[in-house]
């Protein structure tokens, strides 16, 4: 996997993934930025949520669950000092579908957390307390 991050100006950077997709990262105005893109730590949090959500949806689809939506709300705390690393991340999955099995949704969330989501597992191994919860929503 490859990526390139290029400085644009002030606190703005343009990231390009190896697959050719680009994203703008920028800082707040008080740091010389113009607040035109996500912060790098926000991107890390979003990537973790995307990684885990991908797993949960894939696992549920493979287990023939009639899933129509999946949203993960995330809340993270960071250390007060420098470096302001993540100390904890909580992921709450809202899985919408028809006749979803609670057991299957729970299994999908646990498999992502314990086996498949490289991002959250890596953060957990680095000392971040990563927790998960879920709810099932009927459309």
From TrEMBL:
InterPro entries: KH_dom-like_a/b, OsmC/Ohr_fam, OsmC/Ohrsf
Native species: Pseudohongiella nitratireducens
Gene3D superfamilies, per database record: 2.20.25.10, 3.30.300.20
Domain of life, source organism: Bacteria
Protein name, as recorded: Peroxiredoxin
